[in-house]
Amino acid sequence: MQFSKILLIILFSIPFTTYGNQTIIFDHLANRISQLNLINKEKPEIKVLSSLINEVVKRYFSKCHVNIIYDDLFEFDLYYKDVLRVILLSFDTVSYEIFHIQKYSSKIIMISEPGCTNHIIFCRNPEIVESKFGHAIDSKVFIVTVGSSWQIREFFYSRASQNIMNLLIASAGQALQKNSKNEVADIKLYTHEMYTDGLGSSVQKILTTWKINRFTRPEVNLYPTKLINGFQGHRFVVSAIENPPLVFRSSLTKSDAYQEQSASWDGVEIKLLKILARVLNFTLEIHDATLSTTKNESEDRIIGDLVASKADFGTSGLYMTNARYSLVDFSPVVLQDCGTFMSLGSFALSKYRAIFGPFHWSVWMMVVFTYVIAIFPIAFTNNRDVKTLCKSPKQLESMCCYMFGTFTNLFTFKDVKSWTNTTMGSTRLFVGTYWIFTIIITTSYTSSIIAFITLPEQPVTVDTSYQLVDKGYRVIMLNKGGWQQYLSITNDTISKKLMSKVKLMNNLEDTVDYIVKTRYIFDYAFLGSKISLDYLSQNNFLQKYKNKKIFLHVASECYVPFNIAIAYKKKFMFRNIFNNFILRSQQSGLLSKIINDIQWEIIQHSGIKKSTLISPEDRQLTLDDVQGMFVLLGGGILLAVLTLLIEYIKRKRTLRKIAQIEIKKQLKRANRSKSLVVKEHITAEPFRPLTT
To answer: What's the rounded Cα separation, in Å, for the pair 324 and 384?
Structure first.
C-alpha cells in the first residue's frame, strides 16, 4: 500500500499535456498504473462529482475547448489530487488543457485560442479567481469549490463575479467530506442575478441540485439569460466630443420653474444610446472627453478615457481602425462614412455666359461668318464690282457698320449710296433674305437670354477626384482628425497629385472663410468626413455670406471609406447585449429613422425653408448675373481708349511733321526774300547786252 502511495505521488509530479481529445502523461506506463492504483477512485462522492461535471460538460461544453484550472489545494492535498485525477480520466469527449491558477493568464490564452473557450475551475475559495480570471464575455465558467456557503455568497456579492456573465458554481464541499454512512451529500448549483439594483449588485440564485446522479430540476437551464429586467437604473459613463450630426450639444429650455437653459447632448449615436438606455433600464452620464497634454486629437482623448476606465462608452463618430482594435472594443457598424471633398459653388452666371450663354460657340462663329461674308455678294450685286472694296479698304469698315446697323436695327443709313436705296433687284433680294435671317437670330437670342439668366439652372459642381485634378483644385484639410495619417500611404496617382500641395488649417470656420475669400484666385477643395460635410452644407453655416450667391457642395465620390461604431472599454462584459440591440435596431429600421429625424431637426433649426439649389419661383437679376455685360463694356472701353491713345499719338506725330514742314517752308521763304534785297556799298554790274 505504501508503494502505491509513493507511485501516485511520482505520477502527479509528472507534467500534463494535451493531445487531441484526451489528456496524456508523458510516461504511458505510469498512466496505466495510476488508473489502477488511485487511492480514492472508488469513493462514491468522487464518482458523484465526476458524473456531475461530465453531465455539465456534455450539455454545455462539448462544442468548445476547455481550460481546466486548479489551485494549490488540488495540487498538494492527496485526496483532492485523486478527485482531480479521477475527473480528468473521465473526460473523453472534449479537448482540454490544464493550468495551475498561478500560471494561468487569460490574455495569453485569449490570443492563442481564437475559437470559443470554456473554463472549469477547481478551487478552495472562489475568490481566488478575482486576480487571475474575469471579464468572461462569451465563455462559460464552471467553478467547483469546496468552500462554505458563506464564501460562495460573499463571492457572488463581490466585483469578481460581476465580471463573469455565464457563471455556474457547484458547492462540493459537503459532498466530498467523509461520511461514515457512505451517504453522499447533495451538490447545489448556483448562479447569480446581476444588477439587482442601481449600484450593480449581484446576488446568488440556486438553480438545482445534483442528487443521486441526476438533477432535481432537469428542465432548468444552468446558464440562463441574464439581465432580463435590465440594469435597474445603473449608471454608465459616456465620453463624448461634439461631432455633428453624430454628437452635438443642443440648448433646450427647461420648464418655467427653472427659467434656465442647459446644454443637452444629442445626435445619432446619442439618440441610439438613449433608446438603448430606455429599453435596458440604465442611465447615461455624458461628459466631455478628458483633456490631455499628450493627446491632441479628440478621438484619442476618448480612447484614453476608455483605456483608463474613466468611461464605459466612447462616441464621437469614431472610425474603426486597426490601431484602435488593440485598445478598445467596438459595436457593430452604426454608420458608414467616407472621406470626400467639399468645394465652393455659385448660383451666379459666369462673367461671359450672361451674354454668350444662350448660343453655342459654333452658332456665334457661323453668325459672324455669315454677316462678314454677306458684304461681298451685296456689294457685288449693287456695284457689279468688288474692286471698290479692294481699292479702298476703308470702305470695308463702313460696310461692316452698315451690316451691323441693318441687321440689328440699331442704325439707319439714308445715304444715296446706301443699299436700302438701291434699284438692283438682286441686292434687294440679298438684303431681304439676310433681314429675315437676322430677325430669326435676334428673336431666338433675345428669348433665350431672358430664359437663360432669369430661370436658374443647376450649377456646375465637382464630384470626383479626377475633376479636381483636371480643374486644378488644391486640397485643404484640418491639422487634426487624423486625415494626414489616413492618406499618408497611398500608391494612387490621383491621390498623389491631390496630396502634393496640401494646406492645413486650424478649424472648420477659418477653412470655409479662406475658401470663400480666395475663390477668385485659387480653387480649393476641403477634404473631410462626408457626414460632417453634409451637415455643414445643410446647416446655415454660410449665413454671413447670404449676399453672395455661393454654396458648399459635397462631392458624391466616396474617396476613402470608413466604418463608424460606438467604442466600449476593453473586455466590456455587456458588449454582446448592446451589440444585439444595435443589430436589431438596424434590421427594424429604427436606426434609419433616428438618422432621418436628426437630419430633419438640423434643417428646421438651420432656418432653411426650401431648397437652395433650384427655386421654382422667378428671381431678379443681380449684379453677379449681369457682370459679364459690364465686363464686355469695359473691354470695349479699354479697346476704345487704346485706339484713342494710338490715334492721339499718331495725330501728334502728324502735327509735328506738319509743323516741321511749315517751318522749313518759312525758312525757304525767308531766304528767298533776303536774296531779292540790294545790299549797300555794292556796285551793280551791268547786264550783258543782248547780241543780235
So the answer is: 91
